Structures
1.
Amino acid sequence: MTRCWWLVLACAATIPCQGQNLVANGGFADGSTPWFRAHKSAPGAIEIVPRDGEGFCAKLTSNGEWVDLMQPIELVPGGRYVFQYDLKRTAAGDDIRAMMIPRRAGGTDQYHSIGGSQTRLQQWQHFARVVRAPGKLESARVLLMNRLKGADAWFADLQVVPVSRTSAPGRDHSPKLDVPKVDAAPTIDGQLADGEWAQAGHITGFVRIKNGADPEAKTEAWVCHDGLRLLIAARCEEPLMAQGRFNSEGHDAGGVFADEVVEIFIDPDNDHETYYHFAISGRGADYDGSVGEGATEGAEFESGWTARAYKGPDFWSVEAAIPFGALETGAAGDIWGINICRERHVPAHAENTAWAATGTSFHTPAKFGDLVGLREAAQPKVVLEVLGVDQSTPGPASLSVRVDSRLPDATTVSIAADVASPVGEVVSRTTQTQLQPGASATVSLPFDIDERGSWQASVRCLDQSGSVLFAAPAQRFTVAPLLQARVVKPWYRGRIFSKMDLREVEIETRI
């Protein structure tokens, strides 16, 4: 049932902060309160209706006149904020959008708009941008508007959340964390040495994902980058260490999710749909996979990340370094979706906790938190293109790879290739080359073709310390059979030739 309302609500005072989301009732669960209209509109032009699948949204219908909702918010002068919301609409045009509007002292407004014409129709889409409040701030407000004739627009999950180097968990909003570049990267050994993560952004605690309640066992996390890698650490308090599950070992190990484990979900393009999934168990088993991101799906995705774990007397900890070059960051901006989560499997004390409460499952990208400040760091410094092999018959062959440098200086890099045969045998080859600033180079890696069928080549570029600068999507190539043949006539699908009284058949062959 819809809830319609027409009265203009007066609002003279600034709305106080509600948690860390400065927009009160941004999900419209409490109807229209405390939203009000800046322009008079026709009865029925604004409704609070159920959102597809979950919660509520504000539906604004326009006949060409202004239809809007507004709410004052309280900002800190000079502060940074992520302004975000979800939008569905029936027509394209800049006359449907949302704005965050700080007012400078003296009465001059700044307009920060998102969700104009760059949008899909009849589908929910997420929009977000970073806004800095002016130093001389008088007031601020958010505005939802539709003045596109004959169009419907649905607005949901309005949030304005501060960005800082320290973040508490998000119980009913999407928490934000500023991600600094560190002067010296921590040693990735799992041990969190004193002062090693002092420059990193700090997540002070996790909550239970289902209801946002405080957990029994506390977890903290740290995030930063060194220009090439996203660096993440977590410390998991465990008063019952002897009862914890620390069994799995190895890479992409099947039992990693049955152990005490930290999971990391990264949505670089912040589309709230596709993401990368990483996991480190308390014993050091690790997993990396992709859910719709990049060209490689599932556990076949290989990031070349470094992940280590350490067990103390009443805690366990993990450290990880994820190369930016292994992630698909072409559509990434300055806001990345992320969640850091923990599965605790201690008998009778099991709990799923995370930085951002996601409901019943970790795999809910619409409710991840956000990292801010990665746009420049995430741009690839080197780009690889697998050109192919020089022949497609058995015998000695060469895999050709083109390397494009975006580095400011001449640099020696390693090109490493893993070539998998049709029967699963993997041959690894590595060669070095010097890259000139802004230039390209082509390198060849020799190997032997000893099987016919489908082969796969996975290629990475590494700097002199072994860090991955770029990981190219896996490329397949086929070594054709020596002779291919098929029956052309007669062609009776499902018949058994021996029962057809055949006198002759026609066969097509290819060598």
Note: The CA atoms of residues 260 and 344 lie 5 Å apart.
2.
Amino acid sequence: MTSLAKKIGRVAVLMGGDSAEREVSLKSGQAALEALLRQGIDAFALDVHFNNSADYGTICQQLSTQKIDVAFIALHGRGGEDGVIQAVLESLNIAYTGCDVSASAIGMDKYKTKLLWAGSGLATPPFQRIKAEQIHTKTQYNIDILLTQLETSLGFPVIVKPAHEGSSIGINKANNKTELFKALKVGIEFDNEILVEQWVIGKEYTGAVLDDQVLPLIRLETSRDFYDYHAKYMSDDTLYHCPSGLSEELEQHYQSLILEAFQCLGAQAWGRVDFMCDASDKLWLIEINTVPGLTNHSLVPMAAQQNGIDFDELIVQIIKASLTDE
């Protein structure tokens, strides 16, 4: 056994789950598992399910009966990124990667994330939260009032997002009230809370954070309206610019804001913050991802590579950073 393998111990890679991001999670988990095995680390996969209360008992039994020194969380979306699995692991006194219960729960909630950022003086596009009952139980007259109110306060276009989903699932752009109503109806298929956010005209970027350091920024370029699910996982024409093309001064300025936004939520070890830059080079925070993807289209490995960190080393650094932050 190598000294690295001895130091880290036995690793359970938690993947899969039951969220809308299950397939992406399986790919991320498998990639992390293979990276650990290549380095001689004792690691195994565990597909975690949260369909009902009985599943929690099964999860606890699986985790408590295995010898586990560290749980590498590769679960995206609900159950794995929202503080649930983190709470289970803490109750079993098992160390795990990434953010703690509180930061995970906040980071998964786009509305609460933006409230904290705005309250801390960090720029994020104007927004409003809409609850499912405002769409389901209202008359057409009341819905028209709601749509008019959103148009008045936010203008068009807007972007409509389920408040607790990732991977751009259920997200749509709306250019008018008809499209806004359709986007809200799509959104409530995924969540009971919807975030309606003012559209920012500008360039899309992402900043990966690893052990309190912001890696080289990536500028995203897609032929679609925005960096949606198709652009992330299916398109072959999405371009990733890393280096980002920003001046050194501007890149460093953005990196400092990204770290501030990350730490403002209590996030730790690793993650990713997505943002927009308008024509005047003002940064607008969009959202945080506390368990970023690790697929062949994923952004954190890309930024790490630019910093001279290959994929295998990245996985180890995530574990080390998480254990340091305990």
Note: The radius of gyration is 20 Å.
